[in-house]
Specification:
heterodimer, A: mainly beta, five-stranded mixed beta sheet, B: mainly beta, four-stranded antiparallel beta sheet
């Protein structure tokens, strides 16, 4: 699976949009981009995933560049509960059998 | 999505002993996954547990150290054997929310401290 690069930390003001970048320049054509987050003392939580089109759900939006070498997770209105480590993971959708390779992630701190 | 319960939520153990962690899912699932998160580190997959067959272990993990049982489609156990302080970690159980999608639901984890 392709590797990802994320900034180690980010601060965000409550109520503002949080834009979390991820580089995955070696992504292959059949690999998806997944985002998870881990709030302190909890297990990771799935947020969103996509292949090449932009995706949106009730939690966030995922913007993938046309060349698919990078992506941005957008939390539209950050709250204090969004403070967590955010993981960007690239993986094939099938035959990976749950083998997600978690990197170091980005520690996001939302402040009042 | 599935609800996962893990027991114990935390434990403190003595060096050389073994501890079994239980994972109960509220729906039937084909595959269950065990991950480890060492202090201050990210998650690493230990093994995949299928019902009716032996678990498949990732590189660096062996059955003698981390035996896994999967007696039915809603339950699995992970045993950490002959523990040392290096085994102090959070152990997490997870399942796929839909087949082949890599969208996983995780339990809250079992925090193990070995003295």
């Amino acid at each position: 699976d392709a590797k990802t690069t994320q900034p180690p930390s980010m601060d965000c003001a409550e109520g503002r949009a949080a834009n979390l970048p991820c580089n995955h320049s070696t992504i292959s054509g059949n690999e998806y981009v997944y985002w998870y987050r881990q709030i302190h003392s909890q297990g990771p939580q799935y947020i969103i995933h996509g292949l090449k089109n932009n995706e949106t759900n009730e939690m966030a939006s995922l913007i993938i560049t046309e060349d698919r070498k990078s992506s941005t997770l957008i939390l539209p209105h950050a709250t204090l509960r969004d403070t967590a480590v955010y993981y960007c993971i690239v993986s094939r959708r099938t035959d990976s059998w749950g083998k997600l390779q978690f990197g170091a992630g980005t520690q996001v701190v939302v402040t009042p | 999505s599935a609800v996962i319960s893990q027991k114990p939520s935390r434990d403190i153990c003595q060096r050389g002993t073994s501890l079994t962690i239980q994972c109960q899912v509220d729906s039937q699932v084909t595959m269950m996954f065990w991950y480890r998160q060492q202090p201050g580190q990210s998650l690493t997959l230990i093994a995949t547990a299928n019902q009716g067959s032996e678990a498949t272990y990732e590189s660096g993990f062996v059955i003698d150290k981390f035996p896994i049982s999967r007696p039915n489609l809603t339950f699995s156990t992970l045993t950490v054997s002959n523990m040392s302080p290096e085994d102090s970690s959070i152990y997490l159980c997870s399942v796929e929310r839909s087949s082949g999608a890599n969208v996983l639901t995780f339990g809250a984890g079992s925090r193990l401290t070995v003295l």
